[in-house]
Predict the structure.
Amino acid sequence: MKLPQPLLKGTLLRRYKRFFTDIELSDGTVVTAHTPNTGSMKQCAIPGYRVLISQTDNPKRQLKYTLELIRIGDFWVDTHTQRTNRVVEEALQKGSISGLEGYSVQPEYKIGDSRIDFYLKKGDERVLVEVKNVTLCCDETTACFPDAVTTRGQKHLRELLVAKREGYRSVIFFLVQRGEATQFSPADDIDPDYGRLLRDVAAEGVEALAYKTVVSPKENRVGGQIPVIL
């Protein structure tokens, strides 16, 4: 998926009130940028980190800048959670995800009391895919989720299990934004209930997939699959 252009270089000064970040641009100007991420941004929202931000002239916007990417070590990390599903949808449409090729793709599928990110259909086969954005590493090479306690995430796992029992193929899809990661595991030290539930639903047939993104200042796309360690 192509990112907005051009992107402005800056340094993160602070994140506050969840949706605001102060950024120092390369010319020394300090601006406030919208941060489209409701999570803790643990390991990401660190003062002094290099960032890339976009700018808009939309008069309806309260803030004309948006935080797009954060540099962690040798990699750009996409913390823009409103883009996450579009990156995955593009990969599904292109057939870039092994085992999920050749399906029709319907976003935001209503089931039970909530919506699952994607409904896929091919012949008589029905697949539900719920996507989670992963920006946290538990160690140098292990990406993990969540970065804060998530009752909503637990609810999605339960709904995927119910759907599995009703005949759907159910997939929890972890989109890993950390380029250094070589595997994925649940963040048991942050939300042990989520980790326990993920293992339980996986034991009953809910599929857990993890794919890394390839992120540059120009685009974010789904790259290679990494193992899920439960």
Q: What stands out?
A: The radius of gyration is 18 Å. DSSP finds three helices and 15 strands in the chain. The helical segments are 81-94, 151-165, 192-203. The chain has two domains: 8-78, 81-226.
